[in-house]
Design goal:
Shape: elongated
Radius of gyration: 18 Å
Helix content: 25-40%
Order of helices and strands: EHHEEEEEEHHE
Number of domains: 1
Low-confidence stretches: none
Strand order of the largest sheet: 1-2-3-4
Number of helices: 4
Mean pLDDT: 84
Length: 152
């Protein structure tokens, strides 16, 4: 295993998800602005835009290293140290949920999805690579992190 940078999430999954949210937002705005401009139509448009924003907010990708997790939600990279990570949860070997100790509402969670082609046995039974790396490398500040997945 490579110990300097462990990939978390997929750039392409992140990009496709963000593009779908952007195109969906544009469609909602265009449909909302065409025709009558009643209060109900504006409220529905606001609700749809809020749902698209919330669904897209947790999506991130990046890599883990000794310092912590370098990730990207939108355009700039952010570093969160291992001391600021509360839990790492996974449901499959490609789906990772990182919960932060600080943040507001949807900013406390990072959802990272990898687009790996693995067998079903590996997909359901093995933890993600970053979890295996955390158990072996034990970087400074990672002692209190809850590691939780199926069968753990």
């Amino acid at each position: 295993m490579q110990t300097d940078q462990i990939k978390m999430g997929s750039f392409w999954f992140w990009l496709v998800w963000k593009m779908i949210a952007l195109i969906g937002s544009l469609v909602v705005i265009l449909l909302g602005l065409s025709g009558s401009r009643g209060l109900v139509r504006l409220l529905l448009m606001g609700l749809c835009l809020s749902i698209l924003f919330v669904a897209s907010e947790e999506i991130a990708y990046g890599h883990a290293c000794e310092e912590g997790i370098h990730y990207r939600r939108y355009f700039w990279r952010i570093l969160v140290s291992w001391r600021d990570v509360a839990a790492v949860r996974w449901s499959t070997s490609t789906r990772l949920k990182v919960e932060l100790k600080r943040g507001f509402l949807f900013r406390k969670t990072l959802w990272m999805e990898s687009a790996k082609n693995v067998s079903w046995a590996t997909y359901l039974a093995e933890p993600p690579e970053v979890v295996r790396w955390l158990l072996i490398a034990k970087p400074e500040g990672s002692d209190g992190i809850l590691l939780e997945g199926p069968g753990v």
